Amino acid sequence: MSVKIKELVENETDVTVEELAERLNLEIINKGSGIVHMATFNVSRPGLQFAGYYEHFSQERVQIVGEMETSYLLNMKPEERKKACDKFCQYDFPCLVITTVLEPIKELVEGAVKYNRVLLRSKLRTTAFVNELSIYLNELLAPTITIHGVLVDLYGVGVLLVGHSSVGKSESALELIQRGHRLVADDAVCLKRVNDRLVGSAPVKIRHLMEIRGLGIIDVEKMYGSGSVRQTKMVDFVACLEDWNEEKQYDRLGDETHTYNILDIDMPEYIIPVRPGRNVASILEAAARNFRAKLLGYNVMDELMFRAILENKN
Question: Would the pLDDT of 167 be above 80?
């Protein structure tokens, strides 16, 4: 099954210089336009550009100047260095970061000021900074969707509840919260694809809130305490709640495999039929425990087959 997307966000975004500096512990040397447009996970070290080669220059990337580039510029004649820095700063790159607490080259600062470019400095060495920046960009630019559903944390397992409106997703989640589990998001779930995993959270305006038909909106954190909620959670499997269909054959052994595709990631899916008398919360708890058991290498179907073989031998 594929997810019905409510909102798809392109993996490009703008951040303010202050936000970027705070997140990566950077010193602002020149604020430039005040906005950094991030469009790619990749970074660039412009050594070839300082040498005058601009063929295939990836100006959409964050530019990083380390010891090698700084040493190269300092070994230039002053007029050549000024020309190289001026030409480089004419290109509209997102920002330029000087690493290793190196003293910014005067001509580079002048070029940044002249062409209104964002210039920052990091205390980290180049390799360490690139690693931190890559992690940040991977989170920032991750493909994101918002779907209708509920995300809960059961025994450390991220369970995404989906199904048509009024099938009982929120009510089941509420019972799980009362049993000590934690709510991540209700009604609208924001999902990001990070390193081929899905990370879910709630939109800020409805964070920790739930809508219960007949009762209205409740604040889970205020009613059940801070231990009943969490900000984000990795999604481990999808539980699709649907009205019981007498004509449909449901999995009774656990040997069927279903997947639910979200952002081109196939998530394990359990199809759970709902009807009066079935305790969905208990079924979801069992599903989460069973999922953890499988991660540890235990499969009940293998155990069943083993018992059958032993019985036949006897």
Answer: yes
Confidence of residue 308 (pLDDT cuts 50, 70, 90): confident
Please state the domain count of the chain. Answer: 2
Nearest-angstrom CA–CA distance, 271 and 258: 8
Task: Work out the number of other CB atoms within 10 angstroms of the CB of residue 8.
Answer: 10
On the question of pLDDT at 123 being above 60, the answer is: yes
Percent of the chain with pLDDT over 70: 95
Q: Residue 235 sits in which domain range?
A: 144-303
- Which residues are designated catalytic? 148, 169, 187, 252
Distance CA 257, CA 34 (A): 50
**Around 190, how many Cα atoms within 13 Å sit in the side-chain half-sphere?**
13
Do 136 and 148 lie in one domain? The reply is no
pLDDT at residue 283 tops 80: yes
Burial state string for 281-292 with b = 16 or more CB within 10 A and e = fewer than 16: bebbbebbebbe
Question: Side chain identity at 163, as an amino acid letter?
Answer: G
What whole-number distance in Å separates Cα of residue 167 and Cα of residue 240? Answer: 10
Looking at residue 138, what is its pLDDT? 87
Whether 240 contacts 162, CB under 8 Å: yes
Tell me 33's DSSP state.
T
- d(Cα 230, Cα 207) in Å, to the nearest integer? 9
Residue 100's region, left for phi above 0, alpha for psi from -120 to 50, else beta, is left
CATH of the domain at 200: 3.40.50.300
270-277 average pLDDT score: 86
4 exposure class (CB count in 10 Å sphere: 0-12, 13-18, 19+) = exposed
Q: State the residue for tokens 């209205």.
A: 216
User: Residues 179-195: pLDDT tens digits?
Assistant: 999 999 999 999 999 88
